[in-house]
Amino acid sequence: MRYQVLRDKLQEYAGLPRVSGYEGEAAHRLADDLATFCDAVRIDRIGNVIGTINGTDESAPSLMIFAHMDTIGFLVSYLSPDGFLKLERQGGVPEKLVQGTPVWAGSEDGKWYPGVIGARAYQTMSEAERGKVDPLATLSLDVGAKSEKELHDMGIEVGCPVCYAPSFFDLGNDRVCGAYLDNAVGMVQLLELAKYFHENRPEVTLHLVGTVWEETNAKGAMIAARTAKTDLAICLLSPGCGDTPDLRGSSNVVMDGGPCVTVMNFHGKTLDGQVAHKGMLEHMKASAKKEGINLQRCILRGALSDSAYLQLEGEGIPVLDMGAPYRYAHSPKEMISLKDVDETTTVLKRFVKDLRADFSLNRF
Q1: Angle, CA 165 vertex, CA 107 and CA 105 arms, to 5°
Q2: Where in the chain is the domain with CATH 3.40.630.10?
Q3: Looking at residues 147-166, what average pLDDT do you find?
């Protein structure tokens, strides 16, 4: 495979349990890996990982490139006398996909136990029930325990995290599929950038950041920006493809079409979102052109990223969201093209290399 090293690192990071609010294991792994290449690495109070590579020009702006470490998942909400568990969603879990799903249940001492979210037997359902989605509140997690005492002995208590069981496999055309590629892809790209700029020092000071809480409140990056004191920021977040049969016509984003920038996103319920900073968008377009890589664009309604809140920090931080497009978001089996991931990293390298002291932070 052309992208074997990239593929193997992605499998490693996708397999780290990191339900939103419980990102500790992933944070320490990312910090250790960044420490090989960065001038300084720290984990702030809320758990963001910040690796810094000092630039060669003190007058140049500082740039924060960040990817969220956390994932959607579940929290244990109830332990039954006969050893079953009830769950509450942590983040945007699609309830219609969870029945029969293999999971890992976390304990308070850091152990993980395999289990399955039980699916009601087909033979016991009426004709009408077979076409309906059973709400999560009616389902139970089975880890093989026979009693509540066994669950306590395992260290499983109310509030413990539960995640999709790790899975990762190869498909044709340099594509891979598995659980939690969102946003293991971004973390792997941070490492690729760290390695490159360790050997090719940029003019700007570069902060490579893994953030917490994106899946639950999208505000972890705000604190990271305060800690790093960055001037501008790029959010590494894979936009959804619009090329599957169910989504055709919803966007022009296709797999293997190259990296994609989010021109605008908007979350109607919270009235939050952001429009791409014009100067950053133009700089990204020029970077892609120099590398001979196609740059896709998308607009997302009903969704937002950490950038929506990070842009309000200080006097206002210019932001841009971009990433390699992926399919089947928030399902136990997401799909991405390694070619798109590699090309996204290549364009980002050029963006950073060409960033100078004369870059305007103003929107107009």
Answers
A1: 15
A2: 4-71+180-353
A3: 98
Q: Which residue has the tokens 């325990």?
A: 145
Burial class of residue 358, CB neighbours in 10 A (0-12, 13-18, 19+) = exposed
Superfamily in which the 4-71+180-353 domain is placed by CATH: Zn peptidases (3.40.630.10)
Angle between the 338-353 and 278-291 helix axes, to the nearest 10 degrees?
A: 110
Average the pLDDT over 190-212 and give the result.
Answer: 98
Helix (H) or strand (E) holding 54: none
Instruction: Compute the average pLDDT of residues 115-123.
Output: 91
- Which letter does DSSP use for residue 48 in this model? -
214 is catalytic: yes
How many C-beta atoms surround the C-beta of residue 18 within 10 A?
A: 30
CATH class of 73-164: mainly beta
Bridge partners, 296 (sequence order): 260
Cα Rg for the chain, rounded, in angstroms? 21
Q: How many residues can be counted in the chain?
A: 364
pTM of the predicted model over 0.90: yes
CA atoms within 13 A on the CB side of 85: 34
| CA–CA separation, 340 and 324 (whole Å) | 5
Tell me the residue type at 363. R
Task: Specify the amino acid at residue 354.
Answer: D
Give span(s): CATH 2.40.30.40, the chain.
73-164
Q: What pLDDT, on the 0 to 100 scale, is given for residue 278?
A: 96
Q: Find the catalytic residue in 23, 192, 203, 214.
A: 214
**Cis-peptide, bond into residue 173, ω within 30° of zero:** no
